[in-house]
Design brief:
There is one protein chain. The chain is α+β, with helices and mostly antiparallel strands. The chain is flat. The protein folds into two domains: 121 residues, Ybab, Chain: A (2-Layer Sandwich); 124 residues, Nucleoid-associated protein YbaB-like domain (Ybab, Chain: A). The longest helix is centred in the middle third of the chain and has 35 residues. Strand 1 and strand 2 form a beta hairpin. The strands form two sheets. The chain has a three-stranded antiparallel β-sheet. One of its GO terms (molecular function) is DNA binding. This is YbaB/EbfC family DNA-binding protein. It comes from Microbispora catharanthi. Pfam families: YbaB_DNA_bd. Keywords: DNA-binding.
């Protein structure tokens, strides 16, 4: 069976596709390197509270000026939340710019990799397979059943991806530190939703309080990620009962469903 490409020889277009793919991969590598260098900074309480976040939205530092300890616990909680959100938003803005630049490279691909070409090749292949169906021999019915099952599973997966993403986005992570005197709630994307500093925590030195805040935040983000991965793992088992899914499979699905650089505003 000979398969041909429109508008040129298979070899010429194959070479062009390879070159384009290499360009895309180089661009993605550059984006990943750029994201690793991204930092965002935010502040609250007139600069007495400062936070820093990396390109993944992870908060890497919280600094509290000793004078901030004069504030009421509830006020300080709000100012810490404001500083962290500002840092994460600043990092996200820069990350979005890098991702948008990478996406523009992909959408700018020439004909061999665009949607029209892919659809053409799929239709052509389907016609050729249909014309040569007799070549499958006595097992063709079994293979047709397998294809039908695969199509049904693909439809189930597509439906789950739409519903599952909404369920995952509703997940919140909870973290505590300083013997429960500090509580942090984050979204599944790691974005801070709430920081609660109890009055008893105000007795801590400012540096210790900052360290405990960072610890509670990390625990909340880990909790949200754990819940999300469990949801993906459960969905995989439901969609494909009897099959074993290791950490790599869960990571692949988790990464596909949860896009860390597309956090809602």
């Amino acid at each position: 069976m000979s398969l041909s490409f429109p508008g040129g020889s298979d070899l010429e277009l194959l070479e062009q596709m390879i070159r384009q793919a290499e360009d895309v991969m180089r661009g993605l590598a550059d984006v990943q390197a750029g994201i690793r260098q991204v930092t965002g900074e935010g502040e609250g309480a007139d600069g007495l509270v400062r936070a820093r976040a990396d390109g993944r939205g992870q908060v890497t530092a919280i600094t509290l000026d000793p004078r901030v300890m004069r504030l009421d616990a509830a006020v300080l909680s709000a100012e810490v939340t404001r500083a962290i959100r500002a840092a994460q938003d600043a990092a996200k803005e820069r990350t979005d710019e890098l991702v948008a630049a990478a996406q523009s490279r992909v959408t700018g691909l020439a004909a061999p990799l665009d949607e029209t070409f892919v659809r053409y090749r799929f239709d052509q292949l389907a016609q050729e397979l249909d014309a040569g169906a007799d070549a499958f021999g006595p097992h063709s019915a079994d293979r047709a059943d397998d294809l039908e099952q695969d199509a049904e599973r693909a439809a189930q997966i597509e439906a789950w991806l739409e519903d599952g993403q909404r369920e995952i986005e509703a997940v919140t992570g909870h973290g505590r530190a300083a013997d429960g005197r500090i509580k942090v709630v984050t979204t599944v994307y790691g974005q801070v939703r709430e920081v609660v500093i109890e009055p008893r925590a105000m007795r801590l030195p400012s540096r210790t309080l900052a360290e405990e805040l960072l610890l509670a935040l990390g625990r909340a983000q880990q909790d949200a990620e754990r819940q999300s991965r469990q949801m993906v793992s459960d969905a995989l088992r439901e969609l494909a009962p009897g099959e074993s899914f290791g950490p790599d499979a869960v990571d692949e699905w988790f990464g596909g469903v949860l896009k860390p650089f597309e956090r809602p505003d």
